[in-house]
């Protein structure tokens, strides 16, 4: 029987509470992802799930050593995902999520834009014209992200202590995401999603809708495949990975999320297959087909969804 250790950072911190400042939105989102993937893994014959209920490093090492695979769900913020994945690799574990080197290459929005293949378009950095987008260099969940329409708004943010944020041009278009299941010889694109963001200039992630129209989905897959191939050439990995894009007059890559993303919540509702089983089999090097249902799913970051 194969054992898979599933660790979600905020759920582990909340059991028992390790901090009084635990962000509830990220806890809710993390719990929704964890519950979805655990439910799907539990339906796979011959799979045993090892729980990640403790954030203690020694407890994590013990579970990693017992497991055949370890799936880490955590934000990139403050190097959290990197440190947890490093703990897995240093304990002799196998990651069922992107490798330490892949996480490093995707980390830091400024560094990714400079490292990535120049044929993969990204927003221009620190543009001389407005509007701009300001965000943390290693943020997650749209925390401290701002649409900055003009120099006056920029000065107000600087006065509030946000002057050191990463700055890029604002690229108009459809906010979208595309996720992939990756194995030693396989790159399987899943359905592209429209991202639902707040309209208050803060780009708060509220959820998504899947699928996209066919032509938009093909554009998302095309750009996403380029990014995945670049990353694999630099740092081989297996597992689930998500890519955020803008599809418009100019399609651009916004960031690569080297982890399970909230889109999984909607994607799993639109398939006849078990996405967790497909992820595991592809990581093992086994060719797997994912069958999709007709219809549309609108999902929220808290795990709720509607099917139409």
UniProtKB/TrEMBL annotation:
Domain of life (superkingdom): Bacteria
UniProt keyword annotation of Nucleotide-binding present: yes
InterPro entries linked to this entry: ATP-grasp, ATP-grasp_PylC-type, MfnD, MfnD_preATP-grasp
Gene Ontology molecular function terms on file: ATP binding; metal ion binding
Protein keywords: ATP-binding, Nucleotide-binding
Chain ranges of the ATP-grasp domain: 97-284
Record-given protein name: ATP-grasp domain-containing protein
Organism: Telmatocola sphagniphila
